[in-house]
Amino acid sequence: MARDTGGDRDADFDGVDPSVSCDACDAVCCRLTVVLMPEDRVPRHLTTRTEHGLEVMARDEEGWCVAVDQHRMCCSIYEQRPAICRKFAMGSAYCRDERATYRAQMANAIPLQLVPPITPG
Prior knowledge:
Elements: E1 47-49, E2 55-57, E3 68-69, E4 74-75, H1 83-87, H2 93-107
Antiparallel strand pairs: 1-2, 3-4
């Protein structure tokens, strides 16, 4: 029987699937809204406020957390990352649910095709 985690979906590490790896993921967790807590010490230039006034990690134009180093595909503020990011367990039920939701959304997405630019003439 699972222990009561007070509604915290990642607090129970007994539900972690060790076969799940970040290597086979599109960094879905780096596209989630990350609400900051007062004790988080994230550089302010990486944050923004929602329309409801919540302080959150900012996102780039493609929806990625701005703290993601796009060249190395890792968190550029790993030692200073927000508490919610520290608690997010790879392979947890929440991780697996988010991956499944993302895969379903991508399966229903309209595929993009690159079209060569039209040259005048």
